[in-house]
Queue: 2 jobs
Job 1
Amino acid sequence: MTLHWRSRLIHPSATAPAGFRSLTVPTYRGSTTILEGAADVSDHWDHTRSPYRYGLFGTPTTLELAARIAELEDGKHCFITPGGQAAIALIHLAFLGAGEHVLIPHSIYGPNRDLASRMLTRYGVEVEFYDPLIGAGIAQLIRPRTRLVWCESPGSITMEVQDVPAIARAARERGVVSALDNTYAAGVHFDAFKHGVDVTMQALTKYVGGHSDLLLGSVTVRDHEHFQRLGDAHQLLGMGASPDDCSLALRGLQTLAVRLGQLEHNCLSVASWFSRQPEIATVLHPALPSCPGHDLWQRDFTGSSSIFSVVFEPRVAKRTVIAFIDALRLFKLGFSWGGVTSLVMRYDAPKRILGGQPQLVRFNVGLEDARDLIDDLAQAFSAIRARRSRARRAAGKRAGRRSPPRP
Ligand SMILES: *Cc1c(COP(=O)(O)O)cnc(C)c1O
């Protein structure tokens, strides 16, 4: 059949020579995948049972990333999602239904808390928050209708290290699924499955991506029934991820070990320096004894990462902390973390930290030289100290005018 050139644009016979053996995974983009025969048409997501059916369930690039994350985390199956928050939503929606109950630590990632309290409740799920340091005491909170217990360790912003093995054990004994947000540990510094967790997720956006240029998430499991539930929900929710982003994540994986090593070193240098500053009440870094749950971190983790928080002394006013942050030059003000650039973010401390009075500042330490980062922080402290002494001198002068010195 000779084709018009218009048709040949769509159905070419030209092809590149075969046999290029790249070290990298090709980026396969595609919505449609061509099926074998009309008798064999179905749209099932499960690639362990049927061949590729539709791009939304993953192209070879997506599935290669999924397989490598599963291997790294010592899981069996992994789903890639469009972001970390999508991975969180997938877990909630796969395991919960109306009239059922979920337990979530107070220290959970904020958007996870908001999804549960603002959206799951609308669908009739009962949401209960628990003390992140509860440990085996979680057993008392598990009800007949409890279906899911979340952990995140260390917690977002407040950094409490949880007794994940005790919580996962209590859940398992009662037939409840345990889920862990393992983003801090990059899926490697804490072995979720060895410690008894059923479902583990990561924001690949953070350490696996590692360069602040992509958004992806992962959900990994070992159990076949969990795999089926998640796969079904993944398909129904349309959680396809961009193969281009997956390709960047595959590249990020190759340098994860060196980046994590340097980030850990830099972060510890900066966090230790902070614990010697008079304006700071406490430093929340899991490798420092001042962090709640530090002993659990020593017991269960093989390393620490790039984020920590500091709690300012309650006497340091919010406007002073804002001035401190605005004086920083290398630390940029922005959400997310795990990339190469140092970042900073301010929060009002929650009630459980010194009664909720002080200011809490979270740092992500990047790959700059640690001495430059410390110099930057030192100049920002100098700026607020100079402000304070200027203010004190001015107040002294005003007081002096009101009451003349005694003779
Ligand atoms: C950033 C983050 C997420 C969400 O990841 P996105 O890719 O930004 O949606 C989830 N959990 C934790 C602990 C995070 O820090």
Job 2
Amino acid sequence: MTDEPVTSRRAFLAGTAAAGAGLAASAAAAQTPDPLITEVQEWASVFGDPVDATPYGLPIEFESHVVRRNVEWLTESTASSINFTPIHALEGTITPQGCAFERHHSGAISLSKQDYRLMINGLVERPLVFTFDDLMRFPRQISTAFCECAANGGMEWGGAQLEGCQFTQGMIHNMEYTGVMLRDLLAEAGVKPEGKWIYVEGADASSNGRSIPLEKALDDVMVAFFANGEALRKEHGYPVRLVVPGWEGNMWVKWLRRIGVYHQAVESREETSKYTDLMPDGRARKWTWVMDAKSVITSPSPQAPIRHGKGPLVITGLAWSGHGKITRVDVSVDGGNTWTPARLTGDVKSKALTRFHHDMVWDGSEMFIMSRAVDETGYVQPTKQALREIRGLNNVYHNNGIQVWWVRADGEVENVEIA
Ligand SMILES: Nc1nc2c(c(=O)[nH]1)N[C@H]1C(S)=C(S)[C@@H](COP(=O)(O)O)O[C@H]1N2
Ligand SMILES: [Mo]
């Protein structure tokens, strides 16, 4: 942080304290002694936990509300369901695996490294089977990428529905993966010239078979076994999953067991509507794999209301694009009449979550706050209304429309839409 904003913020704090407007803690400190300052606290008079109290640590009990949550009415069974990342309570860009959303079609399976096999067959010179140890002998790469379910925001097509960005935009996570490039494994097998597509399958009962064009497979697709520095968690595909940067989550096959090379796309067995978005005239947009640029203000938001009253306010959120880097995020606090570029905080990575901050002074009156992402292709995140005009209401996938939060004067926040 530079000196300037710190100084002006201090000046502001001093100014309001002097004027007696809000900032209860500092005002009270002047009159009544604060026992947290004047008394010796219990935690300062006893031993804390020994080093081996938790061989693998969990978040402290005060953060126990920061968990994945599902929406019960959404699906019939929790084995074939989805839950949501608590993005309203996270900061930075990396999603801890323990609270990263899960989407399973037939539940998360326990597959050991010993029992793990990956087959590459189809239009290849040498069909191959890799053990987990075999994979560990290929050159490794590191890549940070967001994984977003195509259904993220789907419940909001008809209108503002769910209270909280965890539920409206939380089918997303962003991890730092370590693994081997799929192109290296395909080179080992030797793709025949007729091979134009791969078909990838998982070892779970649903298998989640998906076709991916060979061009993408040879580009930045990774066969990953570490996420955020540790082994993949069971629910994210242990021991091996596919990472398909920028493309919709359903292609990120977990518990990866087979990669077939074919001359055309293989239709998966249970659904024919994969990768298609239904349009108002009944036609479908086909092969909509890439996730368009999107952003959302994570705080304040319905689950993260303003508790401190008027004065300095940090607005923060996330932006991402499947087409590359985020170049700008604009924030509006007046329902889209005026926009100010937010700070892109930390490193901006291609096809990964970008954190933005917008520091303002809140006068305590109601606001309609929203964010609008722009990516390196020049694409500007559309309003929900603009999306509906093009795609109609038949479709629930790929809703990347602008989210509006209504901040009330009491600091509570609601999910709304403005005409
Ligand atoms: N084998 C397998 N892979 C799968 C799925 C599945 O059910 N089985 N679900 C897919 C879907 S629809 C999504 S959105 C992502 C979710 O990944 P996550 O559970 O790590 O969040 O995994 C994909 N890969
Ligand atoms: Mo998904």
